[in-house]
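Researcher: Here's a chain I'd like modeled. Treat it as a single chain, no partners, no ligands.
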Amino acid sequence: MVGYLVFLTISAGFFGIFALGLNLQWGFTGLINFGHVAFMTVGAYTTVLLSSQGVPLFLAVIIGAAIASLLGLLIGISTLRLREDYLAIVTIGVSELIRLIALNEEWLTKGAFGVQRFPLPLARFEPGLIGTIFLVGLLTALAIFAVWQLYFGLRSQWREGTKIQGKSYQPTNRISLLIYGAIGFALILTVYINGCIALSDYNYKAGLMLLVLLTLALIYWGLELLVKSPWGRVLKAIREDEEIPRALGKNVFWYKLQSFMLGGAIAGIAGAFYAWQLTNVYPSNFQPLVTFNVWTMVVLGGAGSNPGTLLGVIIFWAYDALTRFYLPQLGWFDNAQLGAFRIMMIGLILMILMIWRPQGILGKKEELTLGK
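Model: Modeled as a single isolated chain. Structure tokens:
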């Protein structure tokens, strides 16, 4: 059980990084990217191929993120001056192009045989007593940071009022906020206790879990600072109506390009963790379904909200785990039908959500202008 929870934590962690990149592009800037998996593919293959040639892992990840960002530059230069639907079409095509290159260029990527036996982070690390105490202390600091972010996020929504005809209305969903807070705290506590158990009996997966959580916390914190800065406010203005910031003298194209490149770089970092978790890389790992899954997470949690994005990731993986293990026990479906039913239920959940809360669970309807 401990090992499976570690697996879920790693999966949710790197998908959280992956989703934060998409949320920056679409949620904050309004750029429709239906080929987000292309950036993950580039980051994964660059990291494992360079590290296999002796490049230090940290440097390999940075180079992978830089090349993913360069891919965003190439896509953006050719499409960001056009309508959003052109960007969506181009990103789908580029993601399939990258996957087919990985499948057919065997001299570089080993093709369908995949890349295997590459260096893994902390694989040979033996912490000992002092090292274990340090790792548990680091996990404790991350748990405190998560609780702190949860508290301030809920407090800001609790105090948030909407001005309507000169009157201030406090949120009416305070019971929902209390439920979210209780569930969030329970999840943090579960991950923390399970992580401490895993680190006390250290193996490679436990070290990778801690590393992905640390990276996720740093990226989340950095993005929160960015989107609340003047740069982030310009992105939101572009998302709502790009003619307004253009009239104020802002270089709209340049801001879009920066957002697209940074989101691509973040996805490239997620690709490295994806490869490290799988311990091998195949072109089939980067199907368009991966992009569909991350879009589901962002829409579910609330576009334009980094906490909402992480909430969407947690809900998605909780749903995946529960349906994967408990539905077969009911005996209602065979294996083929079970897979189709699980995907169908995701679509049904999204349909219900779009009717009930089109802005997502933690999204702001007035900010996304969905109610106008």
